[in-house]
């Protein structure tokens, strides 16, 4: 693939809104044909998400009100990196522990997940955690969520029938399902 | 699940940046515990994406420079709804035709995909298109992409080995793979 002819070059970059979580940039760019254009996007340090499954094959999910969607959405435990260079695995284990109280003695990396390549610079690092021990939840002050566990097979069905639609959750569940079916 | 205790209520809403594609809102909200907080998010009309597979079992993918990531990313054909009430299937067929030149005589709906529930209101409607005919590509003026076709099995492998990381693409590929394996 000749990617040279697809490249966009930065002319200038301006931070137009610097919020608590949203850092919005408006960049002037040069298109591959030499014309000028603009790109608007949110800069993001990255995030982690963890599909945790216990010895009885139950998966842990969190239900959380997602304000932009005006409803509760079901997701696997996840959270932002505290800083860009934070160790991904450590961050994943922290978020899992804080949101569910779980620690894991066996973690597999499932790869990167890019939620929205045109609008967000965010990359989410996905993990699969087993060999679990349950301790106490430790939520941030402004974090409200309810944890549920359900059989992994049922979670796969909820992904396939469209009940679960969160992208990182769908990706992690179907990747783990595929891995397990290939081992059989 | 008792979701009442998770709900966040709007106090006020303010459009802080109204760009070409990014419409950034800063809302003041009431948390479930009665405290005040803020939410920053991009409002979005929604989008569509299509996994198209021909009679020889080749899938069509597009390679596109994604400025926030500073590199070319491989995705299935996709695009924004032109307006919020646009028919999803019509939009999906338009984007497929514009980006690849393909029309399809058999389309299956794969469900919703939520790319980033905390930061974007965007929902992407996923489709699986077969029975294809190839016509001419018809790109927007500022759209630069290269179309490739590759065997569907190879696309599944690229998802599993982490070469393909775009979320909507991973979701559509693994859903179709699972559907096809269950039919066998």
Report on this model:
The structure is a homodimer of 184-residue chains. A four-stranded mixed β-sheet of chain A has the order 7-4-9-8, sandwiched between helices. The longest helix of chain A is centred in the C-terminal third of the chain and has 17 residues, at 167-183. The two termini of chain A are 36 Å apart. Chain A contains three helices and ten strands. Chain A folds into two domains: 4-43, no CATH class; 47-183, Nucleoside Triphosphate Pyrophosphohydrolase, CATH 3.90.79.10. Chain A is α+β, with helices and mostly antiparallel strands and 184 residues long. In chain A, helix 2 (152-160) packs across helix 3.
Briefly say what this structure is.
2 copies of one chain form a homodimer. Chain A contains 3 helices and 10 strands. With 184 residues, chain A is of the alpha+beta class.
Topology:
2 copies of one chain form a homodimer.
Chain A lengths: L8 E10 L4 E8 L5 E8 L3 E6 L5 E9 L4 E5 L2 E3 L7 H13 L1 E12 L10 E11 L10 E7 H9 L6 H17 L1
Parallel strand pairs in A: 4-9
Antiparallel strand pairs in A: 1-2, 2-3, 4-7, 5-6, 5-10, 8-9
Helix pairs in contact in A: 2-3
């Amino acid at each position: 693939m000749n990617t040279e002819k697809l490249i966009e070059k930065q002319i200038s970059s301006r931070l137009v809104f610097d919020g608590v979580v949203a850092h919005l940039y408006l960049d002037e760019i040069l298109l591959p044909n030499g014309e000028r254009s603009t790109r608007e996007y949110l800069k993001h340090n990255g995030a982690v998400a963890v599909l945790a499954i216990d010895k009885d094959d139950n998966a842990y999910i969190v239900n959380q009100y997602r304000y932009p969607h005006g409803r509760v959405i079901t997701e696997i435990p996840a959270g932002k990196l505290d800083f860009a260079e934070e160790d991904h695995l450590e961050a994943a284990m922290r978020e899992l522990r804080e949101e569910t109280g779980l620690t894991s003695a066996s973690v597999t990396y499932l790869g990167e997940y890019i939620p929205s390549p045109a609008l967000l610079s965010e990359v989410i690092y996905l993990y699969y955690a087993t060999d679990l021990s349950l301790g106490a939840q430790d939520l941030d002050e402004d974090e409200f969520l309810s944890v549920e566990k359900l059989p992994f097979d049922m979670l796969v069905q909820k992904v396939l029938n469209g009940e679960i639609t969160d992208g990182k959750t769908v990706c992690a569940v179907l990747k783990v399902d595929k891995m397990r079916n290939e081992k059989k």
